[in-house]
Automatic annotation (TrEMBL):
InterPro entries cross-referenced by the UniProt entry: YdjM-like
Protein's UniProt name: Metal-dependent hydrolase
Swiss-Prot/TrEMBL keywords: Membrane, Transmembrane, Transmembrane helix
Signal sequence region: none
Transmembrane helix in keyword set: yes
Membrane-spanning intervals of the chain: 28-46, 58-76, 82-99, 111-131, 137-157
Species, as recorded: Pseudoalteromonas luteoviolacea NCIMB 1942
Keyword Transmembrane helix: yes
Length: 240
């Protein structure tokens, strides 16, 4: 499987590509593009929340703890510096000493979080989390897409690393990442599917608006110019 650094680089490249397309479509502002880029890049690390390596797990939860604290601090006003620092510290400690031990105890690496069902769950949870934070539906849907694509990039990369090109054979880890659902852990897998279905149900009031947005994006994608028009440039004329 790919290591922490490789996953981060891959998701960063994919997220940067998506961000540049959105910017070319004039669909979001520069600041929003930067935010979506960061979300997509970090989403490429989500499936490794079940990592068995303590160093990688500490790095992951430190990143997400700082991100969560930052989001809360940006969305709520506080009367003093002490309150601001206190909330940031509480969120960080909550992630590192409450949530992280739960993940360490109940998760197995390359199990249920390395599956299509988990990627779908991450994406739909990102949508609802964004709405709860007061983000517009338009931006919430984009955030969900970036999380989905980032997490999916992680699984695809793991499967690519499971192929031994030199020896023309498949490693034992092949098929353990990019799978629809992990039947070895039925309770956890069903919980993921249940969360996803529940979130989709609560998103139903937005379906018509989401459909309109998707059609609009599809139309704008067709108008993007990928190659420069050379006739727009002035070329020096050589005098004979």
């Amino acid at each position: 499987m790919a290591n922490f650094s490789t996953h981060l680089k891959a998701s960063t490249i994919v997220s940067a590509t998506l961000s540049s397309v959105l910017l070319s479509m004039s669909e979001v502002s520069g600041f929003q593009t930067l935010g979506l880029f960061i979300v997509g890049a970090l989403a490429g690390l989500l499936p490794d929340l079940d990592s068995d390596k303590s160093k990688s797990l500490n790095s992951l939860f430190s990143i997400f703890a700082i991100l969560a604290a930052g989001v809360l601090l940006l969305n709520f006003k506080f009367n003093s510096i002490i309150e601001t620092w206190g909330l940031g510290l509480i969120v960080y400690l909550l992630f590192m000493f409450v949530i992280k031990p739960i993940f360490e105890h109940f998760t197995v690496h390359r199990a249920t979080l390395h599956s299509i069902s988990a990627v779908c769950m991450f994406g739909i949870l990102a949508f609802h989390s964004s709405l709860l934070l007061g983000v517009t539906l338009h931006l919430s849907l984009l955030c969900s897409i970036f999380v989905f694509v980032g997490a999916l990039t992680h699984l695809v990369l793991d499967e690519c690393y499971s192929v031994d090109i030199d020896n023309k054979e498949l490693k034992a880890s092949f098929g353990t990442a990019l799978k629809p659902i992990d039947l070895r852990y039925p309770f956890t897998s069903l919980a993921q599917v249940g969360i996803t279905i529940g979130c989709v149900y609560f998103a139903m009031p937005h379906f018509s608006t989401i459909t309109d947005l998707l059609y609009t994006w599809a139309d704008r994608l067709q108008t993007i110019t990928f190659l420069p028009n050379l006739s727009d440039y002035e070329w020096p004329i050589e005098l004979s």
